[in-house]
Amino acid sequence: MTALATAPEKQAAPAQAGVNRRRYPARFVVLIVLLILLLIVVAPLLVVALNAVKSPSDYASNGPLSIPKSLHWDGIVDFWQRVDFSRKLLNSFITSAAVSVLAVILSVLNAYALGIGRVRGRVWFLVFFLVANLLPQEVLVYPLYYLSKSLHLYDSLLSIIIIFTVIQSAFGTYLLSSVYAEFPTELLDAAAVDGAGRFRTLWRVVVPVSKPTLAVLFTFFFIWTWNEFFLPLVFLVANAHQTVPVALGVLQGEKQMDATTTSASALIGILPAILFFLLFQRTLTRGITAGAIK
Hints:
mainly alpha
């Protein structure tokens, strides 16, 4: 009986090995394609980094793709001092962090009412949030400008925080509503049996279970707000209130800068967002792979 049982296994082993050999070329091709795409994405960043540490004469003599003969930090120092980059960096961090936290909280409250509370007219609310995500920012400029002027919030970080909190929470509400609609009813029933009210159920049950999705939303909201340019350009006029993208655009539009200083400004502008993404990469990956409901 043992010999008869092992015979099919011995026949299946060569077949499995053949399948693995056929799959190996396909995996190799996929790996090559991914490496090429990675190189396409990373190559511009490498070129910017190389030119940021070149001297103007080195750039003029050898071109943008050459390796710098020596590290030249004057372009970075000159740009940092010229735009008061420390202040711009602080403005961007305050705005992005505040929007991320407030937008996640607002998204959770809205999605809890729509996805778990199942309020009347839930579908129309979701359609409203979907349409809000599809509207271009250019359509919102005039009414938002008029409202900020009326409320005396124009040219302040508070106006940008309020605007982007609402904009980002529209996307967060639409996403979390579909997640909370499939939330396990057993957990909600257990919380009700224990005497938990709606808010206690939300903060003690729903939020901890959906923490991976909330971490993903927080990361995306931070990066999206950090990279915003158009609305901060309109609403932040004073130099002391400008964010990093606005400072880069205004400086390059008003003053002539050599290629190395321009590369230095681009490198300094994107470096904080890249560092933030790398710091939260594990949280982001865990949230995407694990899903919102465990």
